Amino acid sequence: MNIRNRLTLGIGILFILILLLGLQSVRSVRQLSVASKDILTDNYNSVHYVEEMLRSLDRFSQDSTSRGILINSLELQQQNITEVNEKEETSALTQKIDALTDSVSIKQIQAIREDLYRIMELNMNSIRFKSSGMETSAEDAVQLLTILSILCILLAAIFLIRFPAIILRPIDKLKQGITQIANHNYEERLDFGDNKEFRAVATSFNDMACKLSEYRRSSLDQLMTEKKRIEAIVNSLHEPIIGLDSDRNILFMNDEAFSILNLKRGNIIGRKAAEIALNNDLLRRLIREVYAESDDHREHEPLKIYADDKESYFQMDNIPLYINPVGETIQQFVGNLIILKNITKYKELDSAKTNFIATVSHEMKTPISSILMSLQLLGDSRLGSLNEEQTQLLSSIRESSDRLLNITGELLNLTQVESGKLTIKPKIVKPIELIEYAIKATQVLAERFHCFVEVEYPEKISKLFVDNEKIAWVITNLLSNAIHHSPENSRIIIGAIQHEKQVDIYVQDFGHGIDPRYHKSIFERYFRVPGTKVQGSGLGLAISKEFLEAHGGTISIESEIGKGCRFTVSLPV
Predict the structure, then answer these.
(1) Helices 106-182 and 3-39, axial angle in degrees (round to 10)
(2) Band of the pLDDT at 478, cuts 50, 70, 90?
(3) Strands 303-307, 250-253: parallel, antiparallel or unpaired by DSSP?
(4) Which of 62, 225, 250, 272 is deepest in the core (most CB within 10 A)?
(5) Cα separation, 94 vs 98, whole angstroms
(6) Domain 423-572: what homologous superfamily?
């Protein structure tokens, strides 16, 4: 018997039992309803009429309407005679009531009461008898319904237990087969025997498995060839490359990586990177960088590696790898690719550039100082007076020399930052001292441009523990920039304010302002805002940022076109 016939038979039998159960329930309820209606019609009404007549007898001598109620109830009782001997008792009662006159004796009332009690007792006995019969019928109905219910439950339980097993057995077998195929076991085959419903499914499944097996055998060689080709390409690269899977196991390394890490091929591939890193400092550092970049995407310093009897510098690139599995849209993390770019040549060039700038800047300071001293001597009136053209020429030379000296100083500061020789000599200093130093250093410049410097300083503010020379240089540079970019007769505000454990020193001008597009770029080296007419090296703000970061501080800008600029230096207390 196939599944369809089994399902039809089981559901059909269950339906018939439920139908029988319903019909028997309706029949039993109907019988009980008819019996209760008979009790109500035959006996309960008679009891009610007797009670009405008894109450009328109690008021017979006091109430003139009692006779009418008594006679009316008697007539109703005469129409509701249903029990044996009830007719005789009712006739006797009728005679006694008809014999009543206005002068009623107690004996007559008592005789009527006795007849009424006999009629009531007769009906009450009948009610008890009929109720007993109803109870018996109800018990029989309950037993029958219980039997039918148990049969339905048993059949339903058998159906629920057996039928899912019948249905799911071939489905589970099919599921196991699909699982084997998913695990690349293409030799799996299905056989459902005489099960006609799943015979076609088994045939299709087996055909699919055969085709997949053939495809695998045909494509395996191709895949191995491609794998060898990729390995050859990776090994031909001159940059060390390391591949990790999602569990940080080493998938591959090229020859350069083995050489840099001082490892031999052996059993490295497939092992935990952390396990190998226990005995390899460089690999341990690389793995640490991989974990660090998974937490924050910061740029790391170049790696200094001693290889091939020389020091080399490498920039590490950690590339997370993601794929879209077949049939899925969500990307899945499959590992990391570590590439070490050899930047030794660029590092050497950068070092040479730094040394060259430092040498040139140092050598230029002496002749520039000599030029400034000569200009001062030429401007001395004791050596003779100068005409107007000579005075202007002298002033122009002095401005150019001052600018050249400032650029030279900035270049020297830059070489300190780039070479890593920046030294911080902190000491306790008041913020007002830094502000006063900057104002004094730019006093001549402010008078030349007719700018008015205003100071905003609170009564109470914490002292700073900083290198006063470098921070004073930063504030002086900001104030000098504000003067250069302010129109004549303009005001400049310099001040300080404290926010909990942080002191902000700000310089605000009311000049043209800086476009918000350039707010980040102005802190980069050699950057100058397009369209500015003020000459400069583009190093001042970059050096200021480096000085502040060395102190654990920051520098920020608030500016809009036409509303001036506000630079804020934030330092920890």
Answers:
(1) 170
(2) very high
(3) unpaired
(4) 250
(5) 6
(6) Histidine kinase-like ATPase, C-terminal domain (3.30.565.10)
